[in-house]
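Quick one:
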Amino acid sequence: MSDPRHHLLSVLVENKAGVLTRVASLFARRGYNIFSLAVAPTDDPRLSRISIVVDVESSPLEQVIAQLDKLINVVEITELHPDEAREAELLLVTVSAGADARAQVIQLAGVFGGQIVDVGRDALTVMLAGAPEGLDDFEDLMGSYGIVELQRTGRVALPKLRADSGAASAALTAESA
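Output:
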């Protein structure tokens, strides 16, 4: 679960040049701290979704939302509570892995659902996608092997789906059988 001082906002914006700059400038001008930021187009090419994890110790969440809502290119703002959202993040990490540690790193990557994407003489690069907490755990474990380089994308999230009736669950069960 997320630290209570961090809140995840899903901001639907017009997919136009300069929109991300205006959002980032708003945060900079107001002194708001961004813990994580990810942006990409949606299935509608006219719109992009910005996932922002906001540090609410720097300013009240309501104030952040009110300021974002004033931006002309913002279409919709939704706060996603961790219990009501599916969050994911991508991690790429290059780890020191000589002959003695290579098998252990590969095994740990497999346990976490990661994939080896590059192999060098004394290092491996692992790609892992999943819940931020799982990536935190994996990163901690890789630290003992020696992290050469690490990059994380930042969180993305969507609201959890709610089944309106048993029919939706039955349809999913039938499909997976």
